[in-house]
Amino acid sequence: MPDRIAEHYERHAHAFDEARRKNFVEKSWLDRFLLGVPKGGQVLDLGCGAGEPIARYLIDRERQLTGVDASEAMITLARTRFGRHRWICGDMRDVAMEGPFHGVIAWDSIFHLRPEEQAAMVVKAAQWLEPGGAFLFNTGSARDETIGCQFGDELYHASLAPAEYRALFAEHGLLEVAFVPHDHTTGGRAIWLARKRH
């Protein structure tokens, strides 16, 4: 099921983009994230979609974006909107990326990966970050695998346990800044903000 995620978002790219542009619940978290990303800083957005609303918000605040998404239709929209920034169509699990970045975001994206793949992405994010750089992502609140529904299609989600993410942070030089297991302002998401050690 996780391997059909790209196909799902490709098929529903325009419907997703339209809905996403009307649903900007993460603004306060982006403001916190930006405290660790200097103006002109490089941000990597994993699962960037079509660039709305996250990339637009960051670009409007003078950050340079590199977006990665498995949907060609989404990446085409992002390139059309923000032609001066870098957009890569590919699978975040194996895309070759040259850092370092001042910030990495994985909003509503790595939770579509299997738990062990999420662990690998946390490690990669730590490697891509500049010392002091910020990492914002969301997960489930406990170790789990579940099937949700979006646009009438089944959609896979998974999570490690909070203790497992924290163990990855400790091993790979990340410091936990904030964790909210059920953030009601964003619809109940479990949200992490971390910083790379200096």
UniProtKB/TrEMBL annotation:
One of its GO terms (biological process) is methylation. Keywords: Methyltransferase, Transferase. One of its GO terms (molecular function) is methyltransferase activity. Residues 43-133 form the Methyltransferase domain. It comes from the Bacteria. InterPro entries: Methyltransf_25 (IPR041698), SAM-dependent_MTases_sf (IPR029063). PANTHER family: TRANS-ACONITATE 2-METHYLTRANSFERASE, TRANS-ACONITATE 2-METHYLTRANSFERASE-RELATED. This is SAM-dependent methyltransferase. It comes from Sphingomonas psychrotolerans.
